Sequence to fold (812 residues):
Amino acid sequence: MNKLTLQVTKVEPLSPLVKRFRFEDPNGAGLPVFSGGAHITVEMPEGEIIRRNSYSLVSDPYDGTGYEIAVRREDTGRGGSRYMHEKVSEGDLITISAPKNMFQLDLRARKHVLIAGGIGITPFLSQLRQLDMEQKPFELHYAARSRKEAAGLALLPEAAHVHVHISDEGARMDLGDILDGQPLGTHVYTCGPEGLIKAVADQAARLNWPVSSVHSEAFTSPPPGEPFTVTIASTGQAITVKANQSLLEALEEAKVEIDYSCRGGACGRCETHVSSCDGRILHNDHWLSEDERAAQTKIMPCMSRFRGATLELDL
Amino acid sequence: MTMQFNDETFRGDYTYFNTPAAVQRFPFPFDQDSYMYSVNIERHPGGPKGTPFEFAFDVDEHYVAEMKDREITLAGDPMRCQSLPHMELAGWDLLELIMVSKARDYPDLFKLHRDGNQWHWINKPLDIDKTFTFLDPTTLPCGPMEYITRQAQGDYALLHEREGNLWLDAGMVTSQADWSLDFDVGMNFFEWHAPVPKAKKMGVFDKALKFLLAVEQDQPYRRLNWTMTVNPRLDTSPENYHKWGPEKRTITPKNVGQKQFLRVELQTFWRLPRSNAIAFPIRCYLCSLEDLATVPKWGRRLHRILREIDPDLADYKGFAVNQATIVDYLSQFDDGAPTSPGIFPD
Amino acid sequence: MDQAQVLLVAPEADAEARMKSLQPRGLHIAPDLDAAGPLFRQLLGTARMGTQLFLAGSEGLMGALSALAVAEGLPLDAMQMEHRGTVARRMQCVHCKGVTDNVTTDPFTCSHCGLTLFVRDHFSRRLGAFQGVCVDAETPGEIPDTVEIRP
Fold:
């Protein structure tokens, strides 16, 4: 896992709930360029805990002078976004991962349709540069509750193919309208609340779009919950997962190496085998199948938790 | 650091040769006395000074001659280099990666000056001095992947990631071990590996795909693969099989030492930043049995491996028909003494 | 059927009439695969996302037309194919790149360059053909017995 230690050079509010952060190399060195839709993982050390959250890059992917992310404050989570809003200031040093991309544009597409709900606008912002270069037609549909909350508005160009739907103003996004009649070779990309992602997928399916043309990225971060303990099979070590810490974060704190990438339950990289389970695994991921969840022989530590007597991980 | 480049051929009169230094640094692929398919992956670059593992894109005494041989192959068959339209960005990524690496690692041979997107590239061994605009294909004589791979040893495959799979959507393939880019372009990971025996049953390719999908920017890896070739021929393509195939049957106990070559592929894996594609360079090294045997450890080990190898594997790696002659020849170098673990000479 | 465009390639005597009775939106006839190509491309040009393609016939037909469809932007998973009729294979000679249709034996002779090729079980969706490789490269003149290709 490649990490970079960068300096926070700018923190600016984009809306009442959203702040934009800019990171640069403290020695002025160039940062690695990346592909539109990429994200970085930010480390947030607080006392004994290090939380890690993934955020989409919103800056120009070919501009190596700095990286920018936009973080929406969520008060019901385990505290990651609250930390970013309250504890991170200009001048601070921060550790991030190198960029990774699970939401890249399919450059074979003859047309791209981008659908963003709320803070889901962020990955599309870094894709705009690539889309301009591609010189292929695209439409961007951005749905937000109110103009005040639409943090991405300031960062979008005014153009015929950029459609803003503000529900407060009575403009709802009609997915059927958007998808119907698109030319062969169109790809649709959705980022936003789970409900929106599902609605687009359902509409596309109803119109017989093949799944390979439908892409999505969900923003999920590990939910907090009751503390619980897990055991490491090879050493017998018992690790307690705190209420506002994910299982993956607790394992990392105990120096147990787990491979990871998205930290949001979508990519499958942290999949861990369970050697013994007396209780119920609370699966919060999108990776395991229904059967796998029922069997309780696998767990995704980035998102899932446990309630019961013993959970032994095959590590 | 001045490098001497061989004046040699890889076809026809086959004047190819390895200097003693080249033999010593040859990437011998076997780290123990028996062979099995394995994943055997390591971080790259990184390795002892002077070895092919030290730098990102190894340049050796065969550089100029290999690029000439590539030119001949391409002139006869332009379809050895193909890039589906959506892979142009990946081609630029590869061009940047190779130019930056070569200029950094071999400053006496290559120079790269960048002013924004205005680049100036100097390739001394090939006598190239070129200014062009990065990301603007009209400023190069051909596509970016073709442009840079005509100046870099080894074959290159660019893989497009989609649907949880990798798709062979671009490549420059002129030194391959018997597979056709023209036929395979557009295939996914499992489809283009379909002809490999046994591996499917062992789940090797599922693991390999999972690994490749997890490769991240600035975290390249490498592994070694091997086959055997009669004569130091780079173009062992299916397209020209009817031309080089007959050479296989010309091996005799008298000439096997000079004409039978161990062919090692140094495969590296890179996640490209702008396209998020995977670059898969396959660098080919050739060494005759005779030259290999000048390293006592290698003579012993190669004999033991080829004597015990699974016949299906010998067939797939293209030397089954000469296996007996090869093993016989190598037996003179094997006194039964133990060999040290690892691939390097003692 | 009222949403369907049907393209019949070298149909049997009563096929056209039978198809007409199902009242598709459009019914087109092409005398052979060569003529079908441009017509097929034209029809695809008016298609929108959500279009499903069904191909039924020989491997040759399915191979050629599916490759065309992919080139026109139709995703692979929007196609369904069902093999009907001859088990004859569409083969590409890896040496001269020529395609030989209706191959029923292994080995067979390339209809373009004349080399004797064995049928490799390696299929390219892009070309819609299997790979044929010279069978006697190492032993010129020594050719294995000819066998019929089985499905």
Observations:
- Chain C is about 20% helix and 35% strand.
